[in-house]
Amino acid sequence: MLATALLLLSVSFANPAVADAPPASFESIAKEADQARQADRLSDAIDLYSKAVRLRPAWAEGWWWLGSIFYEQDRFSEAEKPFKRFIVLSPKPAPAYAFLALCEYETQDYSRALLHFQLWAKAGSPGNDALLDVATYRWALLLTREGRFNEALLLLAAKAQKLGATPSLTEAIGLSSLRMAFLPEDYPQERREAAWLAGMAAFYCLKSDFPRSDEFAGRLLRHYGQEPNVHYFRGTLLRLQQKLDPAAEEFQKELQISPRHAPALTELAASRVEAGRPAEALTPARRAVALDPKSARAHYILGWALLETGSYQESAHELEIAKGLAPESSRVRFALSNAYKRLARQQDYKREHAAFLALKDKDNVLAPLEDKLRAPRGTGRPE
Amino acid sequence: MTAPNILVLMACFWAFVVPSVAGLPDAASTPQKPAAASRDTSKFAGLSEAAGKAREENRDDDAIRLYREALKLEPAWKQGLWFLGILLYDKEQYPEVRDLMRRFVAEEPEAGAGWALLGMSEFQTREYPRALDHLQHARTLGLGDRKEMAQTLFYYVSVLLTRFEQYDDAMALLMGMRKSGSSGDLLTEPVGLAALRYPLLPAEIPPDRKEMFRMAGQAALADEAQKPDEAERLLLAMTTTYPNEPGVHFLYGVFLLNIRPADGIKELERELEAAPYNLTAKLRLADEYLKEQQFDEALRLAQEVVGVEPDNASGFLVLGETLVAKGDLNRGIEALETSRKLRPATVRTHWDLLRAYTSAGRVEDAKREKEEIEKLRRPDTP
Does the beta-carbon distance from A186 to B207 stay under 8 Å? Predict the structure, then answer.
């Protein structure tokens, strides 16, 4: 509550469409409301803005300030209605989507919060830095809760690069890294140390400080190496360091603990392709696809392995499935264009190569958030 | 920590903690909105009076129902928000208490107890960043002279400070609580966590290392109580039982530095074998080497720290001191100036710079540092 005042931002208000004639007292009440707000008499301001919007329900600015004051006081359920009204009335409602989503997060209306975060992102994620930070953080928490771990990590990694290893961020990164579909408020307390250690290991890996990352990862393995997802996580860190064989060993250890761990199978296959042994990738990649047929990445890795082993027809088939699941992925388009090229399908090759060129700069930046996050849950995409 | 005790205190001392509304009769003089119908006013008066009576007669369920009904008529009724909050806290209805207290502090922003109850509720709903923020605000506003209440508040603040990696602040608060008479048993695990620098709450301690944190806490409390033999016995047992856990050799080493520096150095070196990136240990070791005039060792460690963390003010401080001690005045001053820039309020840095500037004949700069030291030592300096 004390910190959220920073989030309040001025928005430009168009003239509200006033349907009915303004009651005589509206102007004076609105003026008093503004004065009360500016003088930090927030209770008075709430009363006055409430009166004003009762008199003139189309007064978008009044709804905005009413929502903002409730939000500042952490009165999230009360803030929702004003923000909703503002969204309906304002020609430029985009920042209110983020505030509404933040309120819905707090009132545990998670599906609506996700929807409104998406609408906010689609509008270009407007708002000041404080809003951007808190909104993307909460959004990432919700994505983690939904099991969309890599999308969450994409958002969190960008925040961590900017803000450093803050305790809240490392905890969130740790939850996603260990594929724990929980919010920080509701995961089992006995997993706290594991989440912290994983978060720190991932953070330093992101910073390319690999020795430090290894120290935290080592502690994680020592105490939690028998728990699901820990070896998988370690494998992903090693892959980022291009230590492909040790990474593959970790994925195999994960599979001993969790035999049906499709992401571990996928990454094991990816490590083998990257290590120049695509034939060894085929079995785990096929198993991954069988276990998680909606995973674009699993199809992509299988398609890539087939491409590298000369099975172009089958490769194109798998990559076409991957493309259907994740049309925005430049990597899939690139691999598919290569498959078509080998199959001498010139027109298809040109089309996919052009798509690759158009998409290639959007893989590692936050700009196309809406593209990355548009697809509904379960469609999967290369991660 | 059991909640009811503190809540009884909070309820009893309503008049102390919320002075501006303390004189209000329960209902009769509570202002009504001009638009409220007289029937509602009368109904509210009846409900609020009945709620207060039920509460006084310990008919909590009746009181809760009546307070809720009254608050529907008068949502900003401060006494109603407050008493309903503490009744529900007692029943562990933390999300509702949290929401009530948010409304309460919006009406009564100077009420430290309101912020405290809000923060305690948020602690229970595991909204830890907010909880710490609001409990610290309660601390700033104060709770009157209610010692027990303050101790409870300090407990929550200290464990949250540890979870947010503010270990030194947590430890200072915990030791202050011990001196004020808080039970050692209550503080053992929080002290152990802060001493070993693990960002966990007591409830989050892994069962396989509960004893490690207890030993660390008992040792730190024994040391604070001037019982070095007991502290050493515990620390030795801890390092023997948990030789590979980060933090244990550091804690023992820091303890030994005060009594047997050579042994302390060995323990800190062991710590760096177990946790090479324990920069706090590395820096403490560098500091000790500096005291022992082993400048090359001190320099190596300090350079490692600032190499890994270019914003580590303490790292630049020790680096600067070492360089100056080695006679490299220019680079020493440069490192000290970096430290000052990163953390301007550290008196030790200004003293170092005062001496270094004086040695370098930079009279004006030395004078400025002296003024800065005097400024920092003034009691009103934040």
Answer: no
DSSP letter at A24 equals T
Residue with tokens 């047929």: A293
Residues of B in Cβ contact (< 8 Å) with A215: 275-277
How far is residue A309 from each of residues A6, A96, A313, B155, B185, measured CA to CA in Å?
56, 52, 11, 63, 66
pLDDT band for A363, please (50, 70, 90 cuts). Answer: low
Average pLDDT over residues B202-215: 97
Residue B18 pLDDT greater than 90, yes or no: no
Give me the amino acid identity at A89.
Answer: L
SS3 content of chain A, % helix, strand, coil (to 5): 70, 0, 30
CA distances from residue A379 to A110, A322, A325, A375 in whole angstroms, order as listed:
19, 10, 6, 7
CA angle B274, B280, B286 (to 5 degrees): 95
CB A120 within 8 A of CB A135: yes
User: From the CB of residue A245, how many other CB atoms can be counted at a distance below 10 Å?
Assistant: 12
* Alpha carbons B278 and B244: distance in angstroms, whole number: 13
CA–CA separation, A357 and A153 (whole Å): 25
In angstroms, the CA A66 to CA A72 distance is 10
ipTM greater than cut 0.90: no
Nearest to A304 by CA among A318, A291, A294, A293: A318
Question: Which pTM was predicted?
Answer: 0.86
| Contact call for A212 and B308, based on CB within 8 A | yes
Selecting from A42, A167, A215 the residue whose C-beta is nearest the C-beta of B163 gives: A167
Which letter does DSSP use for residue A19 in this model? -
Q: Which two tokens stand for residue B180?
A: 């004020």
Q: Which of A282, A221, A206 is nearest to A253 (CA)?
A: A221
User: Which of B63, B64, B74 has the alpha carbon at shortest distance from B41?
Assistant: B74
Three-state DSSP class for residue A243:
coil
Instruction: Pick B30 or B326 by higher pLDDT.
Output: B326
Residue A167 and residue B199: Cβ atoms within 8 Å? yes
For residue B145, list its beta bridge partners: B143
CB A328 within 8 A of CB A365: no
| Residue A383 pLDDT | 38
Tokens describing residue A120? 């906010």
Kindly write down the DSSP assignment for every residue of A338-350, as one continuous string: HHHHHTT-HHHHH
Cβ contacts below 8 Å, chain A against chain B, sum to: 62
Residue A167, min C-alpha distance to chain B (Å): 6
